[in-house]
Specification:
This protein is of the alpha/beta class and 266 residues long. It contains ten helices and six strands, in the order βαβααββαβααβαααα.
Length: 266
């Protein structure tokens, strides 16, 4: 069959959890992330496309068009072209590599989009901060990480509470999330929308909702090889950050929906 879809996400919304579950469904392809900076650096090395000055934070390619062609080929599984993208990855690749990740979709008809977001923006912010500090981005149910080479040179740091850093992350996440809205509007597309909270509460129901949207049959059993990373550390930092957001008055400058998602009432 011919099917094309994109999981449109922002960091720390459960997109890898969802995509790994979809990858276990026959006929749903294998939606993976190809345009994160560390991922580009890693894959460029594996595909002999890495420029000498490339780093995990600032990847450089010897042939950007060849990288795009390789992604298009790798993302296609038995006629199903599926991938995961964050909007900031689209912008960064355009500005720094001269390629548009969305060009992977060229020539494909009836492209479907799944928009994934996290309603609790404070917990999303804390999760993003902790992942960036510890360099632990996913937790696998079984030992071993198929992507461990990607971050093998990253240096982990000990997280400490920093209101200013967390506020910067929150604002950046809101900007990344908003970037998808004009894209959908320009295409005249209404995506299938799913929240992290729905996914976390009901994996099977969430995946089956996506499958129905894609025109694929429901599955009686749905699994993902990932498990939740959230611990008491996340909750403690989130509680403190939420309290400081409300007491500082900074939250008053945010749009009403973002204020609600940060815990403000009214």
């Amino acid at each position: 069959m011919s099917l094309t879809y994109v999981v449109c996400a922002t960091p720390r919304v459960g997109s890898t959890y969802l995509c790994e579950a979809l990858g276990r469904v026959p006929g749903a392809g294998s939606p993976r992330e190809w345009f994160g900076r560390a991922r580009i650096h890693h894959l460029a090395g594996a595909w002999d496309l890495r420029a000498p000055q490339s780093t995990m934070d600032k990847p450089r390619l010897t042939n950007s068009s060849a990288y795009l062609r390789r992604v298009r080929a790798e993302a296609n599984s038995d006629g199903v072209l599926a991938l995961k993208l964050h909007w900031n990855q689209v912008e960064w690749s355009r500005d720094n590599l001269g390629i548009d990740p969305l060009a992977v979709l060229e020539g494909r008809q009836d492209v479907r989009f799944i928009r994934l977001y996290r309603d609790d923006l404070v917990l999303q912010t804390v999760s993003s901060y902790l992942a960036s500090m510890t360099k632990v981005f996913v937790r696998w149910a079984e030992a071993g990480d198929p992507y461990d080479d990607e971050h093998r040179d990253a240096v982990a740091e000990t997280p400490t509470y920093d209101f200013a850093v967390l506020l910067d992350i929150l604002q950046a996440l809101a900007v990344i999330e908003h970037g998808w809205s004009p894209f959908f509007a320009e295409r005249g597309t209404e995506p299938h929308t799913l929240s992290y909270e729905e996914l976390d509460d009901d994996l099977a129901g969430s995946v089956n909702g996506v499958l129905q949207y894609l025109g694929l049959p429901r599955r009686s059993v749905v699994t993902s090889p990932l498990v939740r990373q959230r611990t008491a550390v996340n909750d403690d930092l989130a509680q403190r950050f939420r309290s400081d957001l409300l007491s500082s008055g900074v939250i008053d400058a945010l749009p009403a929906d973002l204020r609600r998602r940060c815990g403000a009432s009214g």
